[in-house]
């Protein structure tokens, strides 16, 4: 898409997204899909054809500054031009802050596309850089405000999935962006205690604000429940992206009920993977191989 502008898909966030193709089918999917929640709020998904992670990225534009939350799983512009999409969506006189829901590779890989971009700050993926980038100076209960110019965001640390995990609340749209800590999929909690404590704080945080929707960074669940195999490149009838505050509460309640026990637990509309989960991971690899052979993944 270098030099072109991205097609903005007019469908609501609830509608099915481009979700990959069965093995052997011709790949005609665009490398990314852009939807507008309003005139200054964009949700970008990288296609299954360029990365099985198919992460969601968020671009929130204020009068003076914009926040790009995550740069996706693909390094090279020629494979997936996130930079080109942002350039096309962003007015020239607006500064850009590139920061991350957390520091995992599938959310930061595109950072290099923004190196040298005018009026742009790219926050590093490590703990110290992330804390400084958001302006955290205190403990995990701290809520920091980020003013984009007529658009106020509130950011709160929710470590557990990753030490740098944050949630971002956008007052303009009532959206709560929860990264990989809450989404319709496999919620990996290598530190179960920290993750559960973060969810408690996140539920309290959401309860004090008029949250319209909870938006995570992946979809891995089917509409009727159950997950697609890890690594799937074809996800027909996948669950909707937006979740409700009730869903968030159900995720928290399920996480509390799991009580830190290692393994896979159903938590509301998602699955909690507590601890290292090697047996469950092995089962996922077998599922993926079987589905690939059957041509359905
Ligand atoms: Zn991720």
From TrEMBL:
<dbReference type="InterPro" id="IPR001279">
    <property type="entry name" value="Metallo-B-lactamas"/>
</dbReference>
<protein>
    <submittedName>
        <fullName>MBL fold metallo-hydrolase</fullName>
    </submittedName>
</protein>
<dbReference type="InterPro" id="IPR050855">
    <property type="entry name" value="NDM-1-like"/>
</dbReference>
<dbReference type="Pfam" id="PF00753">
    <property type="entry name" value="Lactamase_B"/>
</dbReference>
<feature type="domain" description="Metallo-beta-lactamase">
    <location>
        <begin position="54"/>
        <end position="218"/>
    </location>
</feature>
<dbReference type="InterPro" id="IPR036866">
    <property type="entry name" value="RibonucZ/Hydroxyglut_hydro"/>
</dbReference>
């Amino acid at each position: 898409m270098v030099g072109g502008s991205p097609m903005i898909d007019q469908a609501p966030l609830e509608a099915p997204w481009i979700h990959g193709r069965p093995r052997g089918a011709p790949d005609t999917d665009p490398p990314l899909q852009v939807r507008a929640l309003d005139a200054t709020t964009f949700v970008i998904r990288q296609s299954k054809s360029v990365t099985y992670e198919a992460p969601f990225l968020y671009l929130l534009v204020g009068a003076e500054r914009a926040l790009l939350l995550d740069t996706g799983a693909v390094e090279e512009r020629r494979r997936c031009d996130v930079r080109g999409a942002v350039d096309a969506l962003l007015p020239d006189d607006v500064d850009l802050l590139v920061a991350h829901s957390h520091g995992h590779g599938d959310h930061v890989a595109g950072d290099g596309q923004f190196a040298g971009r005018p009026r742009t700050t790219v926050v590093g993926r490590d703990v110290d850089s992330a804390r400084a980038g958001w302006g955290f100076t205190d403990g995990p209960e701290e809520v920091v405000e980020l003013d984009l110019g007529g658009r106020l965001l509130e950011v709160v640390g929710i470590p557990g999935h990753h030490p740098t995990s944050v949630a971002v609340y956008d007052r303009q749209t009532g959206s709560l962006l929860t990264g990989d800590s809450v989404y319709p999929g496999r919620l990996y909690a290598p530190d179960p205690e920290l993750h559960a404590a973060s969810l408690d704080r996140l539920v309290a945080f959401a309860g004090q604000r008029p949250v319209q929707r909870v938006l995570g960074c992946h979809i891995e669940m089917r509409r009727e429940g159950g997950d697609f195999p890890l690594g799937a490149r074809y996800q027909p009838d996948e669950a909707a992206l937006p979740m409700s505050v009730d869903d968030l509460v159900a995720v928290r309640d399920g996480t509390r009920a799991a009580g830190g026990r290692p393994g896979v637990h159903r938590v509301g509309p998602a699955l909690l993977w507590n601890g290292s989960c090697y047996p469950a991971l092995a089962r996922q690899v077998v599922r993926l191989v079987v589905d690939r052979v059957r041509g359905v993944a």
